[in-house]
Amino acid sequence: MGHSxxxxxxxxxxxxxxxxxxxxxxxxxxxxxVFRYFLEKRYVQSGLTALFIITGxxxxxxFSYTWFLEDMHKNVMDSKPxxxxxxxxxFGMGILLRSYHLLEQGYKEIWGxxxxxxxxxxxxxxxxxxxxxxxxxxxxxxxSDTADLSMLKLxxxxxxxxxxxxxxxxxxxxHDEWSVLQYMSMVFSFFNLAWSLVDYRIWLRKSLPQxxxxxxxxxxxxxxxxKLFTITSLILSYSLLLILSVYSTVGFASLWLLGTIWxxxxxxxFCHSGVLELLYRSVIGxxxxxxxxxxxxxxxxxEMTVYYFxxxxxxxxxxxxxxxxxxxxxxxxxxxxxxGVIYGGSLLGLISLVSYYxxxxxxxxxxxxxxxxxxxxxxxxxxxxxxxxx
Length: 390
Fold this sequence. Notes:
The structure is a single chain. The radius of gyration is 22 Å and the shape is globular. It is built from 14 helices and no strands. By secondary structure, the chain is mainly alpha-helical. The longest helix has 40 residues, at 136-175. The two termini are 14 Å apart. It is 76% helix and 0% strand.
């Protein structure tokens, strides 16, 4: 296992805590917007904001609860009453439950073991096993739990945070209103998006037996910039298309359907259940609306090239369409700012993408991975032991 010789450190425990706080901030600010729009009798905006929250929570509860049942059946984790887990997941507490469990167990392994060693050392009873620290199996379990949580957060990001960011951008632009709460919602969505992308990439690569861990420093920064620039510029383009016509939502739905069909044609094999596999492919379709994701675990550089060619066409043509079809926007400074961010972000995103895969991408011994390949290759992680075939 890729992390077999590693220890679950205090730094990783703190990163898990920060990730939880970002998730809570994102959900709480979006929920506050739901009530604010409702009190202002803006029922459509309230309903759409709530819809994205509910969609992300519902899908995550389904996967999370299923994984808990699989884990209990295989004795991967301590057996606990299924009814309690079911009730917590019905109320949307899946990610919170997993985060609490991870933080609690991580704290016991790190600080509890440290205190025990200090006590034994002071009493002169420290053995060789004690000096080596906690058992590797305990730390491997913490790594596996973190990988599960990371994947669930990735699902939540593209089912809730990304579409929520698009919706709030559209509301602010079309109504020319910018409140503190809207700013907070978009900021939390943006940072939750950034966090989940890097966190997913790190933890899923960590579990690959033949792949080096994503190095920290420059490679991580460039990968993050590649994703943020490409996703942000695309979301801004989508927001302009919505201002141009609300019927652009039909186009977004079509993109989701095409992405889902593509995942189906790839014959992904992520779940034991056929129904859950269809749900997983639908989630892949939602991710593909905003960014490229290799759902099968194959070297598909050609598909990635086609995706970002179409992405470039959308980003570079949208401001031009707005310029010619809505000439009244020419006098609005905000339009020029957004257009500049789209073009600048697109260019920087392409530069970061090429730089990362050309110079900084950690290569496997036998396979050159493309973005997202980890989902089908991580056969030593807890999740792939139950769902994914190597």
